[in-house]
Every structure is written in structure tokens, then in C-alpha cells.
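Cast an eye over this sequence plus C-alpha cells and walk me through the fold:

***
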Amino acid sequence: MKAAVIGAGGWGTALAVLLADKGIPVSLWMRSDELYRSIVLKRSNEKYLPGVKLNPSIRPTLDLAEALHEKAVVVFAVPSHGLRTVAAAAAPHFPTRAIAVNAAKGLERGGLLRLSRVLQEELPPETGDRIAVISGPNHAEEVSRKLPAATVAASLTEETARRVQEALMTPYFRVYTNHDLIGVELGGALKNVIALGAGIVEGLGLGDNTRAALVTRGLVEMTRLGIAAGARARTFAGLSGLGDLYATCSSHYSRNREVGFKLGRGIPFGEIAAGMHTVAEGVNTTKAALELSSRFGVEMPITREIHQVLFEGKLPRKAVDGLMQREKKAESEEIAFEN
């Protein structure tokens, strides 16, 4: 088996390290000449994953056709806003029987599409049954250092999910399969929105009770939208839902939590964005999630308030007040987790 990882950010690099650790030769594609030269010289990705040495079987490349040549597994690890462009460029060179695995978490802003749908539209038509996603509480910084972690591989076909499981599973990285592709993708995307809120709560200094309430009610929002989109409710209680939500809302590695924390401290979003060299996917996902909630007629008050803080100038404390002063409701009647 040979593999390609398309995208050399932190997560893409960590997955290349994992695959190489299994003895799988890996081509690691990137578009930046500067990053390529640095990786070749130092045998590490000091920009995105400092201190992690790259196995000699990882071959950095700037040539997309070369990266894809005769590969059995192709992992796309590029931000959601760039996936369509990269997938379209990869399509003419995509190996005939390879599986395509999306490792990014988000929604395409323009068409509100899940990222597996973007791959379906851009890769050769015969690739459709061989598209999968992975999602879970998987910080690149920890996976690359072989700290125990688990993830979910989801696809429309059991065979493809199992092939991804076989390719990625190691003694320190446990891979489960799931056929609820919609739920796994939406869980991975929407938890970033709630992580922005968790950061805001921390930045405001509101305490553990507030954060716990925010995260719990955020999970309800995620599940509610997922069900409306065709997902299974129980998927959101798994690794790609609750698991990823917990990790992203609590970890110092979380870019979304960091952005929210700075917002809570009163720093304008424009200033925050200007100082970041990696994408906080929750920012774009907030827009997409709010549009999806309108499309499906689903109430998402936390997402709405975060959108107003990010893009409409609402003060974070006012957003919290808006959530706390909503009309009275009965928790048990809002959502059924038995579908």
C-alpha cells in the first residue's frame, strides 16, 4: 500500500507521520515553496507541527500528479474553503481504484455542502463509492506524538470504511467505522461553532457552570440540525459528536476555542483573524450552520448569537444575556435521541 496526504498543515502532517509509522510510503503534498524547502531541510514541519520528526518514508512534494501516482489511499487534509479547488486539480491524476479520505472538518460556505459531497462533485465519478471521512477528538499535536486517541471512519459503503480503518489503525490510534456519513461530518463541523462559544465563556470569566451549560445545549443544537439533515441522533453521542465537542471546547490546542477566548476578552474579530496563520474552521462554519438552520427550519440560538458576535458587532456579554433570557422550555421535550 502507498498513500498520499494532500495538505501539509498540522493534521495532514500528523496523518503522514501515522501512516509512515505503519511502514506505508507517503507522499506529502503542499503548495508552498517555502514550507517545502523547510520540510526537506529540517525533516520536520516547524510551522505547523514543531518538534515532530518526519520518517524517511515521507516524501514531500510540490507536484500533485507525482503525489497521487499509484496511490491506494489519498487523504485530503486541506481547509474546507480550499477543498474544491484542490480536489478539482487532483481529479485528472486521481488513481483509478484509490479511496479518497477527507480529514478536514467544516462545510463549504457557498453551497452549504458537506465536504464528502465536494469530493463527489470534483473527483472522477467512479470514485463515489470510495469516498470516506474521518472525524473525532484528534488533535494533531497529540496524535503525532503517539498519545492514545480514537476516531471514526464513515462512508456510504462498509467496504470503504473498513479500508480506511485498516489503513489508519495503529496501537495508539483506534479507528471505528460508522455508516452515518451525514452525522459524522456534521458533528465534526458544528462542534467548532460551539467551541467558539466555549472560548467566549472562558474569556468572559463566567466559570465552569456556564461552560458546561453552553456545551450541553450546544450538543442539542448540533443533534437537532443533524436529524433535520438526515443524520442519526445517536451519532452525536459518539466520538465525532460529543467526543470531538469535549476536546475542542476544553483543549489549549483548539484554534476555535482560542478565537472565542479572545472575543470574550474584547478583541475585535478582525484583529484576531489578522494574527492567525491557521484557519479556525468554526468561523466559516458559523455562517453555513446558520443558513442551514434557516433552510431546515431548525432553532439554533447559540449559533445565532455567535454569528452576531463575529459578524454583527454584538458584545459577547450581551450574547450570553440573550441566551439566558430566552423563553422557558422543557428540556426533555426538545429532542428525541432514539431515532
About this structure: The chain has a mean pLDDT of 95. The chain has two domains: 3-179, 182-333. DSSP finds 15 helices and ten strands in the chain. The first strand starts at residue 3 and ends at 6.
